[in-house]
Specification:
It contains ten helices and no strands. It is globular.
Length: about 220
Amino acid sequence: MNQVVNSFLLIYAGLFPIVNPVGGAPIFLGLTRQCTDPERHALAARIAANGFFLLLGSLFIGSHVLEFFGITLPVVRIGGGLVVISFAWKLLHAEDALADQRAADGTVRPVSPADAFYPLTMPLTVGPGSIAVAITLGSQRPRAAANLADLALLGGAAVAGLLAIAATIYICYRFAERLVAALGQNGTNVMVRLSAFILLCIGIEIVWNGYSALAGIANP
């Protein structure tokens, strides 16, 4: 039982800081401000489901896919970090682009649940850093089939941890408007820009960690 609890806590505590649904809620609200409340709520549910399946696949088959293609985790971090940097840079200038579009045609295409995967699910919510962490956690799971019951319990605990992450994402995004209601329009814009800058720094950190790991491999 202790191993089951530890497995659950390891998955949840390991992924929560980098998924950071609390910090992503103002960005989510800023990107979906043209949506109605039902559309935003549907997006929150879709993002939570997408995030769960992304992390589930990364946890259980990610390491096997990397081994098959001969791709190392440092390379995943560098490539994923570049994606995060690109998205964060666009997000920092999103308001300017939105203003230009409004000036051009006076309308903005609302985000729909069909558009939930990019960029709201990936890389905003479940980015390359989260995927790399999930793959790393999955690569440390026991693979010996000596005790199938224990393996099933540990696997169930890992899935429960991912479900808890998905539930946290949904709650934070579903009630994002309440979270930023006290901030006002200006406060929300500040939070979006600040979160985008933090996301940019996270992307640079991911790239640096990947480069450092590759340098260590090349020069042991």
